């Protein structure tokens, strides 16, 4: 399930604390419970597809690109001196003239996803 407003989730993701365990596992603090954390796992495909899953209720019920996944990807990008932007449509991402990735949560290529652009951090 694709989110309705990716820019709101992107803003929420910037406020979340994320800690990298390794290149594929990130722990993201929950805003709903001070002692709760969400585990985000990330897989990278050679064709620019990123598959990310989270333990939050939204993701467990088929949602992709939750704020926890966004926070995790931003944290990973930060370690490489990059910053990310998230887009509903490929055409919006292409207009940015930066490297493009496709984010999905599932194993099937037919599942809807969101587009990510990556640029050098300021």
Trace the largest sheet across and list its strands.
1-2-3-4-6-7-5
The major pleated sheet works out as:
7 strands, mixed
Count of helix runs: 4
- Derived from helix and strand composition plus strand pairing, the structural class reads alpha+beta
Shape: globular
Fraction of residues in helices? 10-25%
In terms of per-residue confidence, which ranges show pLDDT below 50 for 5 or more consecutive residues? none
Mind explaining what this structure looks like?
This protein has helices at 6-14, 57-60, 67-78, 90-94, and strands spanning 18-22, 25-29, 37-44, 49-54, 82-87, 99-104, 114-120. The chain is globular and about 40 Å long. It has 122 residues and is α+β, with helices and mostly antiparallel strands. It has a 7-stranded mixed beta sheet with strand order 1-2-3-4-6-7-5. The chain starts with 5 loop residues before the first helix and ends with a strand. The protein has 4 helices and 7 strands; from the N terminus they run αββββααβαββ. It has one domain (6-120).
């Amino acid at each position: 399930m694709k989110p309705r407003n990716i820019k709101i989730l992107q803003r929420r993701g910037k406020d979340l604390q994320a800690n990298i365990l390794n290149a594929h596992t990130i722990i993201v603090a929950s805003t709903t419970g001070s002692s709760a954390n969400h585990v985000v796992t990330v897989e990278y495909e050679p064709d620019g597809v990123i598959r990310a899953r989270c333990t939050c209720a939204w993701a467990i019920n088929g949602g992709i690109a939750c704020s926890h996944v966004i926070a995790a990807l931003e944290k990973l990008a930060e370690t490489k001196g990059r910053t990310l932007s998230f887009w509903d449509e490929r055409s919006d991402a292409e207009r940015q003239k930066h490297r493009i990735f496709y984010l999905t949560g599932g194993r099937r290529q037919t599942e809807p996803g969101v587009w990510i652009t990556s640029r050098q951090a300021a």
